[in-house]
Amino acid sequence: xxxxxxxxxxxxxxxxxxxxxxxxxxxxxxxxxxxxxxxxxxxxxxxxxxxxxxxxxxxxxxxxxxxxxxxxxxxxxxxxxxxxxxxxxxxxxxxxxxxxxxxxxxxxxxxxxxxxxxxxxxxxxxxxxxxxxxxxxxxxxxxxxxxxxxxxxxxxxxxxxxxxxxxxxxxxxxxxxxxxxxxxxxxxxxxxxxxxxxxxxxxxxxxxxxxxxxxxxxxxxxxxxxxxxxxxxxxxxxxxxxxxxxxxxxxxxxxxxxxxxxxxxxxxxxxxxxxxxxxxxxxxxxxxxxxxxxxxxxxxxxxxxxxxxxxxxxxxxxxxxxxxxxxxxxxxxxxxxxxxxxxxxxxxxxxxxxxxxxxxxxxxxxxxxxxxxxxxxxxxxxxxxxxxxxxxxxxxxxxxxxxxxxxxxxxxxxxxxxxxxxxxxxxxxxxxxxxxxxxxxxxxxxxxxxxxxxxxxxxxxxxxxxxxxxxxxxxxxxxxxxxxxxxxxxxxxxxxxxxxxxxxxxxxxxxxxxxxxxxxxxxxxxxxxxxxxxxxxxxxxxxxxxxxx
Length: 549
What we know:
By secondary structure, the protein is mainly alpha-helical. The chain has helices at 3-8, 12-15, 28-36, 45-53, 58-66, 95-105, 136-144, 169-172, 195-199, 201-205, 209-234, 242-251, 253-256, 266-281, 286-295, 334-342, 346-353, 398-401, 421-426, 432-443, 447-450, 455-479, 488-495, 497-525, 534-542, and strands spanning 10-11, 73-74, 152-153, 174-175, 236-238, 305-313, 316-321. Strand 6 and strand 7 form a beta hairpin.
């Protein structure tokens, strides 16, 4: 900001007169008369908006906007915009003059991605509070005005937006572009709308390529600043969509973190890059959003952030998740990992209680003569006993049987052939939404992917998974090496959550093929596939001509 700009920026109350008081209607008309008497503002788009929203008392609409601008300044004629007749705060003095110079030199189409060359104001962008920041409710209302494809891009100072009739909003405000949902921030993010939306609103409404180029670059900087401030103030990372993160990277973390001299701040740059890398690792699925929402159902903004902590090591800054979001496997902090180990797992306690309840082939708790002796419960340490020999397994020689340690190898495994087809067919009539969401939350997959399959297919795949895991564990028990070289990693690969999730998703196409094969076989018989429940099918088979005959 040069000296001429500083001298031209005069507080509105000193240059024009007292600001109108919104609750005192007697101040509206005098303030509006003083405003209209200013040079170069009578034919502005800002005054056309005030008169269009309320032709009878435009001073009231003017008062609604000025009520949010207690630090308003009167700009010079070179810095006077048609979209707003004042400068909102000191740091924005000279913006419109700079934008006009940029627009005159801009003759290219809008680039594919934004860059730092399209930023009108120079750095720094991470500024300390100066007492002129907009209150959070103003930013929230500006965010509420953006409602998908039916909303408008509104500045935080435009308090008159709610008074404008729906039929007239398209004449005075910037309609959301079709691509906007891919770059919108979550609810509750305190990111200021771009300055070009305030001082070049009419250019944006006309589709000026220079204005939209500046809009994208400024939005990337504003959201990056909000991302850094959210971590500094609340230790959270905001869940930005992937394309918005691409815009931030395109503008450059080095440029965003630059100081007043244009030199980058390595610490701020490393923090921004670490947060962006963590966002790349987080799942952006409906199931993950539901997992966050369930942690605080009463908070509307809970689905938009995750608690994180920043660790600085030899390889630089690294952001880690600082809250337990199981069953998702994320880069957790040391505190979360240690807390998981310290808190007893109810599932683990249930397994420990049942470890001594060994079942043998054929059922019952009496082992057959060919079974190995089971290990005592973990909670009760085994008493010292003299070494004993265990009967060899089938196919083993006597020498090897002398070295085999005692372990559980008996199991009551379920075979695929033990489950008749009609049991899987009965599952195809379950309500789909609840089954898909339940499995998605537990397995850590996207519910939208599971909803492509009928609910019966999902439950059938789950049944197949139980059978596959039981057979895999039984096979592992029979082939485990000698004591001292137990392949625990091999067992975890069989029953770990990632393995179960992969096995479940792989079994879905198998289940669908099996159901289609059964339908084809039923059609070849001639009676068609039985779409009704098994109980109804049994009566139809008993009384082919109808019910009760």
